Amino acid sequence: KTFIKERTLSTLAGKKEGDILQQYIVLDLETTGLSKHKHNITEIAAVKVNNNKIVNEFSTLINPCQHIPS
Question: Tens digit of pLDDT for each residue in 44-59?
Answer without folding.
Answer: 999 999 988 999 999 9
